[in-house]
Structure prediction request, 167 residues.
Amino acid sequence: MITVTVEERHLTEEIIKKNAVCYVGMITPEGLPYVIPMNFGYKDDIIYLHSAQEGSSITALENNPNVCITFCTDPTLTYQNKEVACSYRVKGASAICYGKVVFEENFDEKVNALNIIMGQYSERKFSYSDPAVNNVKVWKVEIERISTKVFGVPHRNSRNYKDNLEF
Prediction:
């Protein structure tokens, strides 16, 4: 089984949009890794997130705004031969994004970001009270670098190779 790098941007976006949660990795002021699951929105190479105004993640990001955000499709167990243990594999796809968090402070931009986040989960239109917007911390991460892979596909010489690049 092999891992295949995906170059097509529309496939990367498909992986991102299939997710309900992303995992945001950052570094604490003590230099330790810290990863949290978060709701998100995605538009035009920007990932939008939201949180409380204070907390461990905010402290970490004020110290170092660099983040790694990971998206992964639901993995599936598959095999080439039911009787051969080494033919079993976990198949899926992932997108790993790198960037820097910028906290959005402009009220109208925060509303726009919240709409993008809610658009990930619903086609419904929402309205937000002034206190709700003012009391939420909106994170904006412009993707600086991205790595997208499909993993657990048969070897390139396998007759099933092309059929297994879908996720």
Remarks:
- The CA atoms of residues 111 and 127 lie 9 Å apart.
- The chain has one domain: 2-153.
- Residues 2-153 form a domain with the Pnp Oxidase; Chain A fold (CATH 2.30.110.10).
- The chain has four helices and nine strands.
